[in-house]
């Protein structure tokens, strides 16, 4: 088709002008996004690395991914705190230690060898849920150490994801990994820890924890051998959730 120069020139000029103003606007938005997108709480390098990787993967690095909470769960002494702290380090994200959210009354009760009741656990779990929600709302990943022994307790934590609909476990941004080991291995760990004066939880409470631990197959929770090296558990956990994680992994992992 032959274009008449009288109409073509103004059309091209208009189009070029529109392109220029659009790219200026987009550039401005992108710069503003860079300044205002909530950064992963810890470090600028993590964000930059994340952008680099996203760019390499061909996705838009400015589209923030929602945060992910990975809860390392299981009975007392199975290694939750050890693994979750290492996971947070590897991801450059924050770490929530559930024991820090217990009331003094709860801690005193456990120290005396008395198992907590549901009434004792509920406000504790709700405060944890709120702490996790804060991170997720800010687009941050978070590693959590919490026993979360029963489905009803995990449901409280899953509610940290405001979009969670009960029973839709796979879509929930709160994930669980359960550490498992024999009672003998865990008793040994707990006794050693107590003898070093490092923890309030007596080994006498282990059986009550094992009695409560219950996972519904539909939840799809990965169960991990807690006698593996903590670093190996972290590596496998990151591999499992690589797609969903907003953070990137520190080069040493
Ligand atoms: N993978 C592991 N291999 C060997 N020892 C471990 C491993 N993970 C943890 N431990 C040791 O086992 C003990 C219990 O670990 P940790 O405190 O992390 O357990 P926990 O599940 O968080 O316990 P609690 O729920 O009572 O706080 C600690 O002394 C820790 O050093
Ligand atoms: O749910 C529970 O019975 C307790 O809260 C415990 O699991 C402790 O939090 C912890 O494991 C001891 O450190």
Care to describe what's here?
This protein has 253 residues and is an alpha/beta fold. Helices cover 49% and strands 9% of the residues. A five-stranded parallel β-sheet has the order 2-3-1-4-5. Helix 3 crosses helix 9 and helix 5 runs parallel beside helix 6. The N and C termini lie far apart (60 Å). It binds adenosine-5'-triphosphate (ATP) and D-gluconic acid. The site of D-gluconic acid has 9 residues, from loops. Belongs to the gluconokinase GntK/GntV family. It catalyses: D-gluconate + ATP = 6-phospho-D-gluconate + ADP + H(+). It holds the Pfam family AAA_33. InterPro entries: P-loop_NTPase, Therm_gnt_kin.
Secondary-structure topology with pairs:
Elements: H1 5-36, H2 44-56, E1 69-73, H3 80-91, E2 94-97, H4 104-111, H5 118-137, E3 142-145, H6 151-158, E4 174-180, H7 183-195, H8 206-212, E5 222-225, H9 230-241
Parallel strand pairs: 1-3, 1-4, 2-3, 4-5
Helix pairs in contact: 3-9, 5-6
Bound molecules: adenosine-5'-triphosphate and D-gluconic acid (GCO).
């Amino acid at each position: 088709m032959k274009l008449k120069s009288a109409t073509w020139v103004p059309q091209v000029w208009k189009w070029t002008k529109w392109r220029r103003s659009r790219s200026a606007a987009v550039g401005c938005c992108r710069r503003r996004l860079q300044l205002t997108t909530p950064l992963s709480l810890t470090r600028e390098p993590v964000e930059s690395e994340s952008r680099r990787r996203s760019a390499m993967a061909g996705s838009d690095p400015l589209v923030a991914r929602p945060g992910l909470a990975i809860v390392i769960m299981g009975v007392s002494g199975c290694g939750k705190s050890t693994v979750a702290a290492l996971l947070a380090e590897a991801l450059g994200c924050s770490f929530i230690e559930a024991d820090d959210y217990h009331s003094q009354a709860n801690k005193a009760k456990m120290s005396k060898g008395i198992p907590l009741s549901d009434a004792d656990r509920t406000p504790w779990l709700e405060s944890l849920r709120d702490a996790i929600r804060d991170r997720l709302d800010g687009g941050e990943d978070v590693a959590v150490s919490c026993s979360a022994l029963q489905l009803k307790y995990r449901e409280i934590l899953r509610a940290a994801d405001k979009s969670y609909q009960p029973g839709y476990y796979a879509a929930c941004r709160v994930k669980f990994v359960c550490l498992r080991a024999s009672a003998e291995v865990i008793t040994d760990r707990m006794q050693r820890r107590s003898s070093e004066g490092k923890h309030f939880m007596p080994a006498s409470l282990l059986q009550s924890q094992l009695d409560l631990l219950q996972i519904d197959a539909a939840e799809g929770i990965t169960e991990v051998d807690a006698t593996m090296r903590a670093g190996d558990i972290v590596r496998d956990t990151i591999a499992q959730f690589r797609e969903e994680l907003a953070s990137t992994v520190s080069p040493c992992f």
